[in-house]
Amino acid sequence: MHRFGRFLLLVGIIWLIVALNMGTTVSSYGETVHNIGLVSSKQNHVIIGCFIILYGLLVTLFYTEK
Fold first, then answer.
1. 5, 57 contact by CB (below 8 A)
2. Cα 63 versus chain centre, distance
3. Under 8 Å between Cβ of 53 and 9
């Protein structure tokens, strides 16, 4: 189960890095503006990545082998 927890940690960290690098701007008449839909999508992905990291950390720390 520790392997599964470490796997979740790795997936969560990769997910978070990708989410933090998501672009939120679009070009409009020669300017760049922030698209609220893209900002919301980025926020959702950051939250999902953090929860995956949290679950992986909890599994790794608190699972006891019998």
1. yes
2. 23
3. yes
Question: In this structure, are residues 64 and 6 in contact, taking their beta carbons and an 8 Å threshold?
Answer: no
Q: Rounded distance, CA 8 to CA 18, Å?
A: 15
CA 35-20-3 angle, 5° bins: 140
Per-residue model confidence as pLDDT tens digits over 34-65: 999 999 999 999 999 999 999 999 999 988 77
Phi, psi for 14 (deg, rounded to 5): -65, -45
Taking residue 64's Cβ as centre, other Cβ atoms within 10 Å add up to 5
